[in-house]
Sequence to fold (276 residues):
Amino acid sequence: MKVTTWNVNGVRAREAEVADWLRLEKPDVLCLQEIKASPHQVPASLQARDGYWAAWHGEGGYSGVALLVSKTLAPVRPPITHPPFDVERRVAVVSLGDLELASIYVPNGGKDFRTKVRFLEALAAWVEARHAAGKQLVLCGDFNVARTGQDVHPELRDPKTMGQTPAERALLERVLAPGLTDLGRHFAPDDDALFTWWAPWRQCRERNVGWRLDLVLSSPEVTRKARRCTALRDFGTSDHGPVTAVFEGPLFDPTRLEAGAEPAPPRKAAPQLDLF
Fold:
């Protein structure tokens, strides 16, 4: 089972690249963040992609997440929901039997730090509750926190900078505390150049002067089946690179799949100015 997470920084601007990824890599699940599009604004080539169940959870030109689930993996459309702490359309969760897989876009916190704190606190409580309910989890997305100094290039390390503060790192550790494993670090514990985001100036990407913000977190039983987790710096034009985790063996019992409701047709809205 192959799962990719990618902050695309605007799905309309990255339409061809997302299509290329689906065609070339054929992920079983593709999690997107910062799609910056309402459902009716998603390009037609992606909105109802052949071979995938798609859920587009965005609003206008800001934030938003998406899930594309292979119909080979899930022959019936699985339930896709949004937990109570979802704000600004930042969380989508697909239920695959006892496995729950989420696409998550944590608030940056630069303009409203308290919202970021509440979001991470609620996410930690939700993880604990789902484990208590017997669920296995795979959380994918842009967490907007670099876990340690190792996850930031030496030129950019500053514990006073948003995304590196001790308070944010402690909150992220609370999310992991109920038993989640950070697969990127699990497979590359000593890699000081493992980054997933680069500022779009001063050739940061070319020089690999970046941060590791995009993570795949997994529950214990899922972690035991993980075989690799890789980040690509040289694909696409987003300021983030895609991160892919590969698992061996089934992560859920297909006989326990439940059918979810079909999404409402995209609603046309009045023309608006927004960001791509």
About this structure: The radius of gyration is 18 Å. The CA atoms of residues 124 and 175 lie 4 Å apart. The chain has one domain: 2-252. The domain at 2-252 is CATH 3.60.10.10 (Deoxyribonuclease I; Chain A).
